[in-house]
Specification:
The protein is mainly alpha-helical and 88 residues long. It is 30% helix and 7% strand. Bound molecules: zinc ion (2 copies).
């Protein structure tokens, strides 16, 4: 239990956002402005925003649990939160 909390806190500290938080935002591909995911246009430069949230972007760059979407470290074989085996 303590380890789980530590991992969760570490990932929050390291990445700045929790998973739910990341799903609420997307990044403008033109000016990199952070927009909430209910916007379809960037309010900064008026570019059309894709449906990809910050989380989708992030998940494409990092390993994550297929079941609960938690971000996991490179060396982890099992999700620290739900115990699911991480596909390599
Ligand atoms: Zn923009
Ligand atoms: Zn999991």
């Amino acid at each position: 239990m303590k380890l789980q909390n530590k991992v969760r806190r570490d990932s929050l500290l390291h990445y700045g956002f929790g998973v739910e938080e990341m799903k609420r935002f997307k990044v403008c591909p033109t000016c990199n402005s952070l927009e909430t995911s209910d916007h379809s246009k960037c309010k900064n430069c008026a570019s059309i925003l894709s449906n990809e949230t910050l989380y989708d972007l992030y998940a494409s760059l990092h390993k994550h649990c297929g079941k609960c979407d938690s971000v996991v470290s490179e060396h982890m074989r099992y999700c620290p939160l739900c115990g699911t085996k991480i596909e390599v």
